[in-house]
Design goal:
By secondary structure, the chain is an alpha/beta fold. Among the domains are: 3-84, Gyrase A, domain 2 (2-Layer Sandwich); 422-546, Isoleucyl-tRNA Synthetase, Domain 1, CATH 1.10.730.10. The protein has helices spanning 3-14, 39-47, 51-62, 86-99, 129-147, 163-179, 193-207, 220-241, 252-257, 260-270, 305-318, 335-345, 382-389, 391-399, 411-414, 422-442, 454-457, 465-479, 481-490, 495-514, 522-546; strands at residues 24-25, 35-37, 69-75, 79-84, 113-117, 151-158, 248-251, 274-277, 280-283, 294-297, 323-329, 353-358, 361-365, 368-371, 407-410. The protein has a 5-stranded parallel beta sheet, with helices on both faces. It has a 4-stranded antiparallel beta sheet with strand order 1-2-4-3. Strands 8-9-10 form a 3-stranded antiparallel beta sheet. The longest helix is centred in the last third of the chain and has 25 residues, at 522-546.
Amino acid sequence: MSYKQRIQAEIKKALNGLTEEIIVEKPKQKEHGDAATNIAMVLAKVQKRNPLDIANEIKEKLKANTALISNIDVAKPGFLNLVISDQALVESLLEVYKSSESYGFVSKKLKEKILIEYVSANPTGDLHIGHGRQSVIGSCLVNLLDKAGYNISSEFYINDYGEQITKLSETSWAIFEKLNGKEITWSENFYPEEGISPYVKMVIESRGEVTSPSRGGVTPLLLGGIVKDLILKSQKQLLSSCKVEFDKWFSETDLHKNKAVEEVLKKLKEKDVTYEHEGALWFKAKEFGDIRDRVLVRSDSRPTYLVADIAYHIDKLNRGFDKLITIWGADHHGQEISLKGALKALGYDDSKLEVIFVQLVSLRQDGQEVKMSKRAGTVIPVEEVLNEVGADVFRYFLIESHANNRMVFDIDLAKKQDKDNPVYYIQYAHARCCSIFRQYNELNIQGKPDFNEFDRLINLLKVNNQEYSATKDLILKILDFPEEVILAAKSESPNRIANYLKDLATNFHQFYTVCRVISKDLNLTEARLALVEAVKITIANGLKILGITAPEAM
């Protein structure tokens, strides 16, 4: 039980029969103590009393517990500011070693089944940095919710049906004929030649077709299908190299094969939420809060993306998922209204669907910012950035900022190997912990420190004021980790873990500067080694959520 949970338990015990939630937070100003609660002000509204009177009553009941709290102050308009005792800090620290690799994580899974779908890029070209950001945010969110005790599955939706696949086939065939010496007329509707050509060449090399398009029975449709599969295979390999894996890859084609798309159109018509206009079939999206009605089937009988999206999300719900989290790029903003409207029209609970929009990414290199734009032809491939900086840096830089924030990926900073680079700074803290233990082992001291001995660990806080302050700050930061995991999960903000780790690394480096870990004082040495071990455990577990390695040497 953390010191905050112990405070909550003591207040609840002191106020027998309390039903209100007790919130214990860290004060914004260090001089106000280690923890604070506004429970007196909450109760004042219910009891119609002066919050200061209630706070003083709580103080009188709590101050006897010196094993938990060494000092309590009441501040206007009714805050309780508390200083945690050294004993409580050490007892909480013992929980870190006891939990070790599971420290900060919740093992018991909730019954609610959640499906997170993310990336879902068209298999018609290379993944760009926008897809990269979605992939990192999605995979970190999956890891975070899993470690916070949620029942999580992940999925990639393969857009392998319809107009974009026809366009891919036509582009591939044009390149195929060009490579076989034929003159072609390049259409502005084709995909960029440089993006598709390598895959067409792979087909030629594997099948031996160099001069004759007819050899081997190659047709535009067949060629497009082969190229699509090669692109998808490349995307899977690239995502894997970014440490992004999925429980399931779901094909849009299957929705059409099993008549799920037709069934959606049929049911929407039966619900009288469609109408025909100028040869097209429309969904009455405005009736469900959208700014305009949406086309379901074009005048040439081709269904729009919306129909397949509706069918796909119904399929998810029918598979027994209680909550759906869909991660889309910012260019899809607004589309969720018609999707949720259609689900509601068909009798499904649209509140089960949550859409997270990931804002745009641009690249800064040599002091110049390059914006990503498909139309302008300045798409930044994931592979290009990944090769420059490596998977760990790639992931950290793309998760550090909240999905709602537009971000600039500073590639020059990402390549630095110093304290200015946050991921290097965090990983170096873990490597430094490992290095300290290597130094200790080289001394050939008999026996290893027992990290579960209270009497040994209390030596951490029997030091001078400067060392005490640095040590206590570090312990408190370590003990914040389980709460950070829960709060990050509740707000679906894995970036919170990235920023927590940066703060923890700062506390550790400050501690290391002020406090000599290995000294002639064996008791203090072993106590500080125990604290270093707690830092190492916490950083490793935090990096595990982010899908980043915790190196033992750098």
